[in-house]
Automatic annotation (TrEMBL):
<dbReference type="InterPro" id="IPR002912">
    <property type="entry name" value="ACT_dom"/>
</dbReference>
<dbReference type="Pfam" id="PF00389">
    <property type="entry name" value="2-Hacid_dh"/>
</dbReference>
<comment type="function">
    <text>Catalyzes the reversible oxidation of 3-phospho-D-glycerate to 3-phosphonooxypyruvate, the first step of the phosphorylated L-serine biosynthesis pathway. Also catalyzes the reversible oxidation of 2-hydroxyglutarate to 2-oxoglutarate.</text>
</comment>
<dbReference type="InterPro" id="IPR006140">
    <property type="entry name" value="D-isomer_DH_NAD-bd"/>
</dbReference>
<keyword id="KW-0718">Serine biosynthesis</keyword>
<comment type="pathway">
    <text>Amino-acid biosynthesis; L-serine biosynthesis; L-serine from 3-phospho-D-glycerate: step 1/3.</text>
</comment>
<protein>
    <recommendedName>
        <fullName>D-3-phosphoglycerate dehydrogenase</fullName>
        <ecNumber>1.1.1.399</ecNumber>
        <ecNumber>1.1.1.95</ecNumber>
    </recommendedName>
</protein>
<keyword id="KW-0560">Oxidoreductase</keyword>
<dbReference type="InterPro" id="IPR006139">
    <property type="entry name" value="D-isomer_2_OHA_DH_cat_dom"/>
</dbReference>
<keyword id="KW-0028">Amino-acid biosynthesis</keyword>
<dbReference type="InterPro" id="IPR054480">
    <property type="entry name" value="AHAS_small-like_ACT"/>
</dbReference>
<feature type="domain" description="ACT">
    <location>
        <begin position="343"/>
        <end position="414"/>
    </location>
</feature>
<dbReference type="Pfam" id="PF22629">
    <property type="entry name" value="ACT_AHAS_ss"/>
</dbReference>
<comment type="similarity">
    <text>Belongs to the D-isomer specific 2-hydroxyacid dehydrogenase family.</text>
</comment>
<dbReference type="GO" id="GO:0047545">
    <property type="term" value="F:(S)-2-hydroxyglutarate dehydrogenase activity"/>
</dbReference>
<dbReference type="GO" id="GO:0004617">
    <property type="term" value="F:phosphoglycerate dehydrogenase activity"/>
</dbReference>
<keyword id="KW-0520">NAD</keyword>
């Protein structure tokens, strides 16, 4: 049998657009998989440019800066998948993407160790008063004093959000002799000697250092406000390397200004600059006892390299094979290889009778189905059908599938 050609998506026609300085390892992965149209930008694009570019892209890679709103996604007529080359996916309207038939992938683990290492280092720096001492030395002031400077050993670290990062922070902190308590909305296996706190307020009242590791959700938005900061121990420290929307900055400024908190380390901000260079504004600027970093918790070469490979592999697998395993917004289907068959992907609104209409299309062509895989979410269904169709049949079948009312995306692989 002659080798089957791809009918609707030859790889050389697939345009991959990577924004925000995604690691070169992603470009290498796409190239190694046979993709040739790969464009990588070091920055995020302004919204008007993004709308223009997303209309042409088949695969889009972003980090935390690019906002994929419903309005932007409405322009994404050709887009088959989005890769968030990071953990957070709050920058994407996941429901709108799903309803447009676009699976979104991320890298849930690859930068977690980098964040955990930074946070533990920040806890040590804050407890020693190093941010002020560093600032004073830069101004030529010698302040050799132990006042306000403490070992972390024996002190209490309170972790809010005991997930992939929070648990690693706890393990590393215990290795330094800290007592670890945590608060999470889910029941979590406590690692080492960590203990769940009786609740958020209890954690805030007990911890010498509080560190935030929650995702951005409606419940975590502005979760640390003046009331919660007021519950923290006088002289305690706050670390936020989660999302800028979790802490009310004006409230933190007030708590620091009043001397209620001894210091803070903040890596994420409610508004972050679009690109590197001047333009970072924050009321926290100018506090010697505050460590400010430009959202670099996960920015190590090791993490970025791994993320590039991991997310590119997920996008390539979906593009080549249709697997949506680990998509964050989409019915998950883990698919075998499909040598010897053509593979049709049909993404549709999850309404009664859809599967029978899909099967009727194949029935009309008197084609036997080699394999069928279906998963649904409340609003969206994803069915994959393997059939031994020739190229002309495949093109006709794809058109007929695309014409079924309620179809969101219809593709044929090879
Ligand atoms: N600064 C950075 O560069 C950087 C890097 C990576 C991740 N992050 C941020 O860190 C967040 C956490 O990452 P992760 O890998 O640990 O995620 P994760 O999903 O493994 O853990 C998050 C934990 O928070 C808990 N949680 C959710 N809502 C909560 C609430 N209201 N109160 C208490 N707990 C709650 C969840 O149950 C979960 O256990 C990410 O969502 C991302 O926004 C930042
Ligand atoms: O790389 C980024 O832009 C985001 C890093 C981090 O916040 C994440 O969500 O993984």
């Amino acid at each position: 049998m002659p080798p089957k050609k791809k009918t609707s998506f030859p790889k050389q026609d697939i345009r991959v657009l990577l924004l925000e300085g995604i690691s070169a390892s992603a470009v290498e992965a796409f190239r190694a998989a046979g993709y040739t149209q790969i464009e990588a930008h070091p920055k995020a694009l302004p919204e008007d440019k993004l709308k223009e570019r997303i209309a042409q892209a088949h695969i889009l890679g972003i980090r935390s800066r690019t906002q994929l709103t419903a309005e932007v996604l409405a322009e994404a007529r050709r887009l088959i998948a989005v890769g968030c080359f990071c953990i957070g996916t709050n920058q994407v309207d996941l429901d709108a993407a799903e309803l447009a038939g676009i699976p979104v992938f991320n890298a849930p683990y690859s930068n977690t160790r980098s964040v955990a290492e930074l946070v533990v280092a920040q806890a040590v720096m804050l407890m020693r008063g190093i941010p002020e001492k560093n600032a004073k030395c830069h101004r030529g002031i010698w302040d050799k004093s132990a006042a306000g400077s403490h070992e972390v050993r024996g002190k209490t670290l309170g972790i809010i959000g005991y997930g992939h990062i929070g648990t690693q922070v706890g393990v590393l902190a215990e290795a330094l002799g800290m007592r670890v308590i945590f608060h999470d909305i889910q029941t979590k296996l406590a690692l080492g000697n960590a203990q769940p706190a009786a609740g958020l307020d209890d954690l805030l009242a007990c911890a010498d250092v509080v560190t935030l590791h929650v995702p951005e959700t409606p419940a975590t938005q502005w979760m640390i406000d003046s009331e919660k900061l007021g519950l923290m121990k006088p002289g305690a420290h706050l670390i936020n390397a989660s999302r800028g929307s979790v802490v009310v900055i004006d409230a933190l400024v007030a708590a620091l200004g009043a001397g209620h908190l001894a210091g803070a380390a903040v890596d994420v901000f409610p508004v972050e600059p679009e690109a590197n260079g001047p333009g970072f504004e924050s009321r926290l600027r100018g506090f010697d006892n505050v460590l400010l970093t430009p959202h670099v918790g996960g920015s190590t070469l090791e993490a970025q390299d791994n993320i590039g490979t991991e997310v590119a592999a997920k996008l390539i697998r979906y593009s080549d094979n249709g697997s949506t395993l680990s998509a964050v917004n989409f019915p998950e289907v883990a698919l075998p290889e499909h040598a010897g068959s053509r593979r049709f992907l049909h993404i549709h609104r999850n309404v009664p009778g859809m599967l029978s209409q899909v099967n009727e299309v194949f029935g009309r062509h008197a084609l036997n189905i080699d394999g069928q895989f279906l998963r649904t979410h409340p609003k969206v269904g994803y069915v994959v059908i393997d059939v031994a169709a020739d190229e002309a049949q495949a093109a006709a079948l794809r058109e007929e599938l695309a014409a079924i009312p309620g179809t969101l995306r219809a593709r044929v692989l090879y």
